[in-house]
Amino acid sequence: MNDDTYNMLATCGEGLYKEKGSKFIAETFIVMNEEEAKAAVASVKKKYFDARHHCYAYMIGPDKKVFRSSDDGEPSGTAGKPILNQILSKDVTNVCIVVTRYFGGIKLGTSGLINAYKTAARDALDNSSIVEKTINEIYSLEFAYPLMNEVMRIMKEENLEQRNPLFELDCYLEFSTRKNAASKIFDKFNNLYGVKITHINTM
């Protein structure tokens, strides 16, 4: 497995689980930051305003370092964590899952709740489509016009697509490359006298 790839949703899905009158409605969302995750939770709360619980979990970033789960009033560890565990088992990121519960009048117990939230979340993920993405490093190049041919030779050799080009006496362009190839390409441009290469960000 490449260490510069990750999985995320291409399309969102819904899931449903019913137990002893209680109904658990799950929805997946594509989120790129915590603000979008919070907005997704808020939209579900508004949509199912008369429900008792809106439990959720999200995971963000190719490195999966940003994550959170919430039981939203359910007994500790019975809702948010089972939802998060489904995200982990599917190995996806940039995703938020919200499971709304309509209480049916009969308590399900700890194991019953865990199973309900887990199953609803898994159903929603199974109804979502998943795509593999690459982690890309974005760089900029600055160089004098006479170096154009040398720069373009490397761009062609490495099959790099230029972005935001500005070709005057002083030239500028940006390109992205897969993380695994980044150090090799950086060295190629860095060893070209008169070319300044700068890392912009990781996507």
Could you explain the architecture of this structure?
- The chain has 203 residues and is of the alpha+beta class.
- 32% of the residues lie in helices and 40% in strands.
- Helix 2 (80-90) runs parallel beside helix 3 (109-126).
- The longest helix is centred in the middle third of the chain and has 18 residues, at 109-126.
Summarize the structure.
By secondary structure, the chain is α+β, with helices and mostly antiparallel strands.
Give the topology, please:
Blueprint: E1 5-11, E2 14-19, E3 22-30, H1 34-47, E4 53-60, E5 66-70, H2 80-90, E6 92-93, E7 95-102, H3 109-126, E8 129-134, E9 136-144, H4 148-157, E10 162-166, E11 170-178, H5 179-190, E12 196-202
Parallel strand pairs: 1-6
Antiparallel strand pairs: 1-8, 2-3, 3-7, 4-5, 4-7, 9-11, 9-12, 10-11
Number of contiguous helices: 5
Question: Taking all residues together, what is the mean pLDDT?
Answer: 95
Question: Given the C-alpha coordinates, what overall shape results?
Answer: elongated
Overall number of strands: 12
Strand content: 35-45%
Poorly predicted runs of 5 or more residues: none
Lateral strand order in the biggest sheet: 2-3-7-4-5
What is the CA-based Rg, rounded?
A: 23 Å
Helix/strand/pairing class, anyone?
alpha+beta
Largest sheet: 5 strands, antiparallel
Helical proportion? 25-40%
Order of helices and strands: EEEHEEHEEHEEHEEHE
Instruction: Tell me the span between the first and last alpha carbons.
Output: 19 Å
